[in-house]
Amino acid sequence: MSSGTSGQPAWQRRVTEAAVGLFSHATDPLADTFSHPDDPGLFGPDSVTWRVMSDCSTFVGGVRSLLVQAAHPEVAAGVGDHSSYRADPLGRLSRTASYVTATSYGAGPEVDAAIAFVGRMHGPVTGTSHRGLAYSAADPEMAAWVHNALVDSFLVAHRTFGPVAMSDSAADAYVAEQVRLGRRMGAAPLPETADDLTAWLVGHPSLGGSPAGGEAVDFLSGPPLSAPVKAAYRIIHDAAAATVPMPILATIGLRPRRGAIARGRLLIRGLRAALGASPAWAAALERCGQDRPDGVRFRNQPGTTR
User: Is 253 left (phi over 0), alpha (psi -120 to 50) or beta?
Assistant: First the structure.
């Protein structure tokens, strides 16, 4: 799908090209989405998920989820032993973004394909953590830690940096919607309200520091990016860390930076002005025969969803 940068002011075009470039290291998960007309996928046009995942606050949520994931030693060991994030960070980023896009906005067959791909990739992810505990990415509890960290992080990021205030009932609806995906991923347990979800993460008995977790946190503090992108990323990273509950933040050895949330809000507001809403949301709405919401500017130009 086109990023639709023609006709943009130069500053918007540069920001858009930089953002799109970060996520262009994997195939487009919605390349064939218009082959499935009227298919709402897992959530559909009226879902909270489609709204939450359309906003630039997901940039903060994505980084936050990785920080939270690092607080589970067995999950961190699986990432450290089997992931390509050190050698191919943008490839890993793009593949994760493709999974999130496909499961959020894809038609049924695209959701199925994304879940099947992750299942194949996770099959060989087994081993033993530094504390001598066996891990397997197929284990429901490990899958739940990863899934629940993602859901909680996207939700907290949206409530902290999103364009409008989000009610408690909408937050609970988002979590309940995401339970559908968690079940498809074989994850358990899956808390069904926002408060229960956060409490489950903060009170998890597996929380602990680890060499693999520490390495992941160190990498996330300064990944190999160009200077302008790295400056923006640092603000996003610090904003993400500032929203992590203190017990988890202490586990991974980070402290919130003063002013991080205020700086994050300014940056996300600027990115929102430059990028608009996700073109995946626009494509999903068009696939379902739905009009685009009034007052929402999408990244792609009107009428050009491909």
Answer: left
Q: Element (H or E) spanning 135, and its range?
A: strand 134-136
- CA neighbor of 150 nearest in space, from 76, 72, 63: 63
Per-residue pLDDT at 3? 41
106 assigned to some structural domain = no
Domain membership flag for residue 72: yes
Residue 34 in domain: no
Count of structural domains, the chain: 1
Q: Hey, is 277 helix, strand or coil? A: strand
**For 274-289, what is each residue's pLDDT tens digit?**
899 999 999 999 999 9
Which pLDDT score is estimated for 25?
53
Question: Which alpha helices (DSSP H) does the chain contain, by range?
Answer: 10-22, 48-52, 58-69, 73-82, 89-105, 108-122, 140-161, 168-184, 194-202, 211-221, 227-242, 246-251, 260-275, 279-287
Q: Which domain holds residue 225?
A: 48-84+122-287
Regions of the chain where pLDDT drops below 70: 1-8, 11-26, 300-306
Q: In the structure encoding, which two tokens stand for residue 46, read together? A: 């009226």
Chain centroid, CA 133 distance in Å: 28
Task: Return the closest-CA partner of residue 244 out of 271, 207, 219, 272.
Answer: 207
- Could you report the per-residue pLDDT of 68-115, keeping only the tens digit for each? 999 999 999 999 999 878 777 777 777 889 999 999 999 999 999 999
Would you say residue 179 lies in a domain?
Answer: yes
> If phi over 0 gives left and psi between -120 and 50 gives alpha, with beta otherwise, what is residue 304?
beta
